[in-house]
Here is the input.
Amino acid sequence: MNKTTRMLLACGFAALLFVAAMRPSRAFLDKTRFVTDLGVAFFAFHHWVWAPYHSGDFNLTKPHHVKAMVKGGVALLFAYNRVKAADHLAHVSKSPLLHHLAGAIDKMQNGFHDLGLKLKAGKMDGKMLSGVNASVTALGEAASHSGMTIKDHSVPIPGI
Here is the structure.
Protein backbone atom coordinates (compact mmCIF):
# COMPACT_ATOMS: atom_id res chain seq x y z
CA MET A 1 0.00 0.00 0.00
CA ASN A 2 1.42 3.39 -0.92
CA LYS A 3 1.20 6.56 1.15
CA THR A 4 -1.72 7.98 -0.83
CA THR A 5 -3.82 4.88 -0.23
CA ARG A 6 -2.98 4.87 3.46
CA MET A 7 -3.87 8.54 3.73
CA LEU A 8 -7.19 7.96 1.96
CA LEU A 9 -8.02 5.10 4.33
CA ALA A 10 -7.12 7.21 7.37
CA CYS A 11 -9.27 10.09 6.08
CA GLY A 12 -12.10 7.65 5.38
CA PHE A 13 -12.00 6.31 8.95
CA ALA A 14 -11.89 9.86 10.32
CA ALA A 15 -14.89 10.78 8.17
CA LEU A 16 -16.76 7.68 9.40
CA LEU A 17 -16.10 8.63 13.01
CA PHE A 18 -17.26 12.21 12.35
CA VAL A 19 -20.42 11.08 10.59
CA ALA A 20 -21.10 8.55 13.35
CA ALA A 21 -20.88 11.29 15.97
CA MET A 22 -23.35 13.45 14.04
CA ARG A 23 -26.03 10.75 13.69
CA PRO A 24 -29.44 11.31 15.21
CA SER A 25 -30.06 9.47 18.46
CA ARG A 26 -33.34 7.91 17.39
CA ALA A 27 -33.23 4.54 15.70
CA PHE A 28 -33.71 5.68 12.09
CA LEU A 29 -32.89 2.80 9.73
CA ASP A 30 -31.85 0.88 12.82
CA LYS A 31 -31.21 -2.52 11.24
CA THR A 32 -29.20 -1.02 8.39
CA ARG A 33 -27.08 1.08 10.74
CA PHE A 34 -26.70 -1.90 13.09
CA VAL A 35 -25.39 -4.15 10.33
CA THR A 36 -23.12 -1.43 8.97
CA ASP A 37 -21.64 -0.68 12.38
CA LEU A 38 -20.98 -4.35 13.12
CA GLY A 39 -19.62 -4.94 9.63
CA VAL A 40 -16.99 -2.23 9.80
CA ALA A 41 -16.13 -3.23 13.38
CA PHE A 42 -15.63 -6.84 12.33
CA PHE A 43 -13.53 -5.79 9.33
CA ALA A 44 -11.26 -3.61 11.46
CA PHE A 45 -10.90 -6.31 14.11
CA HIS A 46 -10.30 -9.13 11.65
CA HIS A 47 -7.98 -7.26 9.30
CA TRP A 48 -5.77 -5.37 11.78
CA VAL A 49 -5.98 -7.48 14.96
CA TRP A 50 -7.03 -11.10 14.41
CA ALA A 51 -5.07 -11.80 11.18
CA PRO A 52 -1.84 -10.10 12.37
CA TYR A 53 -2.06 -11.97 15.66
CA HIS A 54 -2.30 -15.31 13.85
CA SER A 55 0.59 -14.43 11.56
CA GLY A 56 2.70 -13.52 14.62
CA ASP A 57 3.04 -9.81 13.85
CA PHE A 58 2.53 -8.87 17.52
CA ASN A 59 5.46 -11.07 18.59
CA LEU A 60 8.27 -9.01 20.15
CA THR A 61 10.84 -10.73 17.93
CA LYS A 62 9.24 -9.39 14.74
CA PRO A 63 10.94 -6.25 13.37
CA HIS A 64 7.74 -4.19 13.00
CA HIS A 65 5.81 -5.40 16.05
CA VAL A 66 5.31 -1.87 17.42
CA LYS A 67 3.77 -0.72 14.14
CA ALA A 68 1.46 -3.76 14.13
CA MET A 69 0.43 -3.12 17.74
CA VAL A 70 -0.31 0.55 17.06
CA LYS A 71 -2.44 -0.40 14.05
CA GLY A 72 -4.14 -3.04 16.15
CA GLY A 73 -4.81 -0.55 18.94
CA VAL A 74 -6.35 1.99 16.57
CA ALA A 75 -8.42 -0.75 14.94
CA LEU A 76 -9.64 -1.93 18.35
CA LEU A 77 -10.57 1.62 19.32
CA PHE A 78 -12.51 2.03 16.09
CA ALA A 79 -14.15 -1.41 16.45
CA TYR A 80 -15.11 -0.65 20.05
CA ASN A 81 -16.69 2.62 18.95
CA ARG A 82 -18.77 0.90 16.26
CA VAL A 83 -19.79 -2.00 18.53
CA LYS A 84 -20.85 0.53 21.15
CA ALA A 85 -22.97 2.32 18.53
CA ALA A 86 -24.51 -1.01 17.44
CA ASP A 87 -25.23 -1.85 21.09
CA HIS A 88 -27.00 1.49 21.54
CA LEU A 89 -29.07 0.85 18.42
CA ALA A 90 -29.98 -2.63 19.64
CA HIS A 91 -31.28 -1.21 22.92
CA VAL A 92 -33.27 1.73 21.48
CA SER A 93 -34.65 -0.09 18.44
CA LYS A 94 -38.19 -1.36 18.22
CA SER A 95 -36.97 -4.49 16.41
CA PRO A 96 -37.34 -7.71 18.44
CA LEU A 97 -34.37 -9.19 16.56
CA LEU A 98 -32.04 -6.40 17.66
CA HIS A 99 -33.33 -6.65 21.24
CA HIS A 100 -32.56 -10.37 21.15
CA LEU A 101 -28.99 -9.69 19.94
CA ALA A 102 -28.35 -6.96 22.53
CA GLY A 103 -26.95 -9.40 25.13
CA ALA A 104 -24.39 -10.81 22.68
CA ILE A 105 -23.43 -7.27 21.67
CA ASP A 106 -22.89 -6.34 25.34
CA LYS A 107 -20.44 -9.23 25.75
CA MET A 108 -18.61 -8.28 22.56
CA GLN A 109 -18.38 -4.64 23.62
CA ASN A 110 -16.87 -5.63 26.99
CA GLY A 111 -14.41 -7.93 25.24
CA PHE A 112 -13.23 -5.18 22.88
CA HIS A 113 -12.85 -2.79 25.81
CA ASP A 114 -10.82 -5.22 27.93
CA LEU A 115 -8.64 -6.24 24.99
CA GLY A 116 -7.99 -2.58 24.16
CA LEU A 117 -6.83 -1.94 27.73
CA LYS A 118 -4.42 -4.90 27.50
CA LEU A 119 -3.06 -3.67 24.16
CA LYS A 120 -2.68 -0.16 25.58
CA ALA A 121 -0.50 -1.66 28.30
CA GLY A 122 1.68 -3.14 25.52
CA LYS A 123 0.59 -6.74 25.95
CA MET A 124 -1.44 -8.95 23.68
CA ASP A 125 -3.36 -11.61 25.55
CA GLY A 126 -4.08 -14.57 23.27
CA LYS A 127 -6.82 -15.97 25.51
CA MET A 128 -8.60 -12.63 25.64
CA LEU A 129 -8.27 -12.21 21.86
CA SER A 130 -9.73 -15.68 21.35
CA GLY A 131 -12.54 -14.74 23.74
CA VAL A 132 -13.39 -11.66 21.68
CA ASN A 133 -13.38 -13.75 18.51
CA ALA A 134 -15.66 -16.27 20.26
CA SER A 135 -18.07 -13.45 21.16
CA VAL A 136 -18.16 -12.45 17.50
CA THR A 137 -18.97 -16.06 16.60
CA ALA A 138 -21.62 -16.20 19.35
CA LEU A 139 -23.30 -13.13 17.87
CA GLY A 140 -23.47 -14.85 14.49
CA GLU A 141 -24.99 -17.94 16.09
CA ALA A 142 -27.54 -15.87 18.03
CA ALA A 143 -28.51 -14.09 14.80
CA SER A 144 -28.95 -17.36 12.92
CA HIS A 145 -31.10 -18.78 15.75
CA SER A 146 -33.28 -15.69 15.36
CA GLY A 147 -33.66 -16.30 11.65
CA MET A 148 -31.00 -13.94 10.29
CA THR A 149 -27.95 -15.70 8.86
CA ILE A 150 -24.78 -13.61 8.67
CA LYS A 151 -22.66 -14.39 5.63
CA ASP A 152 -19.12 -13.18 5.02
CA HIS A 153 -18.76 -11.63 1.57
CA SER A 154 -15.53 -10.40 0.07
CA VAL A 155 -16.21 -7.10 -1.67
CA PRO A 156 -13.47 -5.47 -3.78
CA ILE A 157 -12.82 -1.80 -3.07
CA PRO A 158 -12.20 0.14 -6.29
CA GLY A 159 -8.77 1.71 -6.48
CA ILE A 160 -7.22 -0.37 -3.72
About this structure: The chain has one domain: 29-145. The CA atoms of residues 143 and 149 lie 6 Å apart. Residues 29-145 form one domain. The mean pLDDT is 80.
